Amino acid sequence: MAVYTEVPDDELSAFVAGYDIGAVLAAKGIAEGVENSNFLLHTETGFFILTLYEKRVRESDLPFFIGLMEHLAAKGLVCPQPVKNRKGEALGRLAGRPAAIVTFLDGMGVKRPGTAHCGAVGEALARLHLAGADFPMTRENALSVAGWRPLFEAARERADTVTPGLRDAAEAALVALERDWPKGLPSGVIHADLFPDNVFFIGPQLSGLIDFYFACTDGFAYDLAICLNAWCFEQDGSYNLTKGQAMIAGYRRVRELTDPEIEALPILCRGAALRFMLTRLVDWLNVPPGALVRPKDPLEYYRKLRFHQRAESAADYGLVALPA
Amino acid sequence: MAVYTEVPDDELSAFVAGYDIGAVLAAKGIAEGVENSNFLLHTETGFFILTLYEKRVRESDLPFFIGLMEHLAAKGLVCPQPVKNRKGEALGRLAGRPAAIVTFLDGMGVKRPGTAHCGAVGEALARLHLAGADFPMTRENALSVAGWRPLFEAARERADTVTPGLRDAAEAALVALERDWPKGLPSGVIHADLFPDNVFFIGPQLSGLIDFYFACTDGFAYDLAICLNAWCFEQDGSYNLTKGQAMIAGYRRVRELTDPEIEALPILCRGAALRFMLTRLVDWLNVPPGALVRPKDPLEYYRKLRFHQRAESAADYGLVALPA
Questions:
Q1: A54, A149, A256, B226: which could join B272 in a potential S-S bond, CB 3.0 to 4.6 Å?
Q2: A306 touches chain B (CB under 8 A)
Q3: Does residue A201 sit at the B interface (CB-CB below 8 Å)?
Q4: Is B31 in contact with A30 (CB distance < 8 Å)?
Q5: In the predicted structure, residue A2 carries a pLDDT above the cut 60
Q6: CA-based nearest residue in chain B for residue A107
Q7: pLDDT tens across B236-253, in order?
Q8: DSSP secondary structure letters along B276-298
Q9: Domains plus CATH for chain A?
Q10: Residue A161 burial (CB count, 10 A)
């Protein structure tokens, strides 16, 4: 949940007057996204989401994110579509921050994803990868393997205060990943944060994807590995092979995985687990006094990492060999 | 800001299916109300607010609040209107809590109220008092004079940790109010919490009142005293006589104040200031570790109390004598 910035009503009205969407009728801070301030906006012409970009999002990255949402929406992928102001710009400034208005997307995140949800997410992820193929901009993944050591260093000293042995385990995993991380896998635009919060469903139907603020250029199969981590484990920490099968099969219905991607799946899953473990660990160790946001548990991803360290092949994630 | 309870999407869908408002398309936690969890609900038939009543609201009071909103809406006052389910009930249960769906009300709270806003609030307050006249239920004001001593006792020991001298000043004010608190003033339904957050405007027009969860049966002029406290002071702590004049005049355009009400205005203002000072003080001294809500500053109301202690008559608040 996150509403960081209060927007005075007169500033808001002036901002919205720069768009061709009618006058503001209502604006309510909403609990969505952990990086930015989001408001539900009702104007004379409909409902929108107003996002104020807080300091964790680099301003120089915003044209990539906004441009990507426009590109994907034009390709028919359902995601929030940036609204342009009268000057033709999708990015403005409000309350001292970069700000954008996007279309309101119906649907809800599922709290307890089932197998069918996982299949739908696999399909949607592959569609996203295909739809992004001709997107002209690139953005390096700051949270890929090269970004993990600085995170580890920031957490190293106090890692064992979270659980004994965490420091050594993280370091060993990091060293192995730095050594063995695959290169040259098929890549392009990835979402890089497609957690259940960011996938909307209406009833059983997937209705859209949101929150593209970690999107970047990286290996497609790494994005799948992130989703396997985020969707296919149960509350008790066990991996649900049926959900994994559904997700991988869903993905492959839209985009076939290459042999190198299949071979790399276990290490990509280890990398994804380490990435979320480390960012959560840093947040966990650096909660400011009086923080209004409760950090997520890094140990959830420590447990997932240990599962991946025992996995031997993509079959352990539910990949079913295709008939020859 | 407040979203305390997460509602699983499947429970939500089942709950909404009990109403005649179509299926759920979206639900977003919104930062509104400090006592309850609120969600913006989009269904096949429109937008609504879903409220889950948290433990600070007594369940036995809910029929009063819900009934009052229905009564006021029927009288033409713009406020959220409870939606009844297929059984004809406006109050249900969701995620283990009492829950209600009310209509979505356009408008926004003003962050920097001007004189015209204060005049409109005075008028709307008087309309509320008249509209509530034939509401058949009553609810004692638990936060009137009899409720202040328990609050003071809960804060007494540590009051001076907030600012030196606060304990003695609060006790002296309390003793005087207990001795002199007026009895027999015109009474009926009052809002009792009509702060700027709870009054919506669209442009310069007042568009509705929300958050009736402190509403009770008490003196009308006490409600006006609460509004003078909440709307007519500047950021620097000074009382804005022009705003006070506008509010009192706005009130009197709709409902004339009686002589005893006019005479009692200074003491009612002192009481209102003490009431908010004490509840804020108790909250301030009892912030649980890891709380997601930042408490409001009790000293704001300590300063207001001191202003009121120097006021001699209603004229000091902007009441203009009517021509004889």
A1: B226
A2: no
A3: yes
A4: yes
A5: no
A6: B26
A7: 999 999 999 999 999 999
A8: HHHHHHHHHHTPPTT-SSPPPPH
A9: 15-103 (3.30.200.20), 115-317 (3.90.1200.10)
A10: 12
